[in-house]
Design brief:
Layout: H1 2-11, H2 38-46, H3 66-73, H4 86-89, H5 110-118, H6 138-148, H7 165-172
Length: 174
């Protein structure tokens, strides 16, 4: 499952299942059977993880945002026991944001960011922002993947300025 996920992530954008109520019945019109990612994309589509866009496309060359990436990674297929009440449990009635000033409490991705934060998958940037619409970088994704799949990240090495090195190293060793 990790291999399927990685091949789809590394070479495509993700249109996620929360965007529409049901998965499409047909394969995406812009992912040909000859594509090296066809099988991985189809697996995720038929398991209601990816649904694509309303016009039947998947946009395999579009970069995935940080919010969309968390929507995928906090899906119950990957992160078991997800609590959909996270936003309610972690905000006050008068709060307009959840954990980060740029994550509105009523945003479609708010629950995903909340679940990721409460599961120690993300910490945001040093200035306190999350930047949900920014494309996710490989190293940011490596950290989340390593934590979601509880990979053996070696923390016994001396810390370096490259916070991401331990996550990239564990993925490279697979």
């Amino acid at each position: 499952l990790l291999a399927v996920f990685c091949s789809v992530f590394l070479f495509s954008s993700l249109a996620l299942a929360a965007e529409l109520p049901n998965s499409p019945q047909e394969p995406f019109i812009d992912v040909s059977v000859s594509s090296p990612y066809y099988e991985a994309v189809e697996y995720l589509r038929t398991n209601d993880i990816l649904i694509g866009y309303m016009d039947g496309t998947f946009h395999p060359n579009r970069r995935i945002t940080r919010a969309d990436f968390l929507q995928l990674m906090t899906n119950n297929l990957f992160l078991h026991g997800r609590e959909d009440s996270c936003v309610l449990e972690n905000t006050t009635e008068t709060a307009t944001t959840v954990f980060f000033p740029d994550v509105p409490k009523n945003a479609a991705f708010a629950a995903d960011v909340c679940v990721a934060k409460t599961n120690d998958l993300v910490h945001g940037y040093l200035d306190g922002y999350f930047r949900p619409q920014r494309p996710v970088s490989f190293v940011e994704a490596a950290k989340v993947v390593a934590r979601v799949f509880a990979l053996d990240v070696r923390r016994d090495k001396p810390p370096t300025d490259n916070w991401y090195k331990i996550y990239v190293d564990v993925l490279a060793s697979m």
